[in-house]
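A reminder from the course coordinator: this example appears on the midterm review sheet, so study it carefully.

Given structure:
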């Protein structure tokens, strides 16, 4: 029996670094622009095996202490870059206050993958189908990047520049910051996929704030429906200031086609993605609104 050459190729030789501090990582990245950072390895290692990438240098950051945490402060929720997806699932804070992120983490691959994959790695892969992206955008998250010039914070919406590309400039993502959620709010996340552990064909996260029975603020984030993560701003504008009746939600959900630009791929067709996006938006808005009454 013969196998495709791509799959039978071995990993190309590379230089290996295992720094113990963030500053060491930054120093290495500054000297080698093509170096690949290894966190959980659930994406990087398979890509290296299949020769999708063949880095000259691999920088393993797993041994850097204090980069795996979930904690609250006055600003909001702070999540370290090496926090695994399983840690998100097991966190009471996430489940109680950031339910859409919990739902995204709970549906992320298999338990084996969740135990290895990190939130920082998932973000830095910068795939439009990434599970954590929509809820992070719906909660208005930012990421903290560290480089030779110091620290900077970038809104998650501006982090990705295209499929697999982002704003990192020889920098290391060290933290994710979710602002404190105030008022009466609710959130929800779901995705459509080919199998229980597959990447999304289409995904949607909603975070809505209700005051006096009307939508005061709302963020609708869509994944796998464009070349990068998108906000469904047309949908949001159709809902702000209005009571979230079934009729209003349905009319707003139909407008999502103005915000997305789906394409046909091995996972789905552009037509299916367009149609299912309307369903996802309608369901997630309704669910998030229902959850407001329980906050």
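Designed residues:
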């Amino acid at each position: 029996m013969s196998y495709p050459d791509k799959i039978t190729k071995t990993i190309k030789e590379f230089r290996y670094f295992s720094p113990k501090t963030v500053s060491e990582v930054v120093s290495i990245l500054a000297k080698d622009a093509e170096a690949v950072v290894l966190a959980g390895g659930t994406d990087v290692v398979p890509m290296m095996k299949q020769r999708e990438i063949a880095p000259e240098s691999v920088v393993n950051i797993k041994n850097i202490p204090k980069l795996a945490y979930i904690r609250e402060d006055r600003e909001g929720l702070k999540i370290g870059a090496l926090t695994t997806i399983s840690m998100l699932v097991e966190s009471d804070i996430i489940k109680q206050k950031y339910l859409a992120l919990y739902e995204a983490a709970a549906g992320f691959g298999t338990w084996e993958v969740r135990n290895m994959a990190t939130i920082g790695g998932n973000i830095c892969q910068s795939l439009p189908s990434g599970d954590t992206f929509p809820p992070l955008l719906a909660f208005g998250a930012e990421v903290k990047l560290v480089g030779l010039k110091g620290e900077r914070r970038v809104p998650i919406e501006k982090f990705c520049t295209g499929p697999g590309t982002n704003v990192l400039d020889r920098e290391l993502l060290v933290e994710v910051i979710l602002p404190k959620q105030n008022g009466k709010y609710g959130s929800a996340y779901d995705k459509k996929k080919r199998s229980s552990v597959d990447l999304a064909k289409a995904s949607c996260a909603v975070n809505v704030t209700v005051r006096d029975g009307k939508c005061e603020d709302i963020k609708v984030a869509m994944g796998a429906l464009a070349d990068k993560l998108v906000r469904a701003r047309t949908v949001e504008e159709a809902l702000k200031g209005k009571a979230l009746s079934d009729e209003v939600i349905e009319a707003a959900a139909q407008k999502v086609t103005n915000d997305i630009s789906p394409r046909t791929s091995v996972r789905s067709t552009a037509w299916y993605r367009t149609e299912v996006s309307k369903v996802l938006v309608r369901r997630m808005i309704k669910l998030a609104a229902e959850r407001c009454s329980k906050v």
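Residues 101 and 135 are 5 Å apart (CA to CA). The domain at 70-179 is CATH 3.30.465.10 (Uridine Diphospho-n-acetylenolpyruvylglucosamine Reductase; domain 3).
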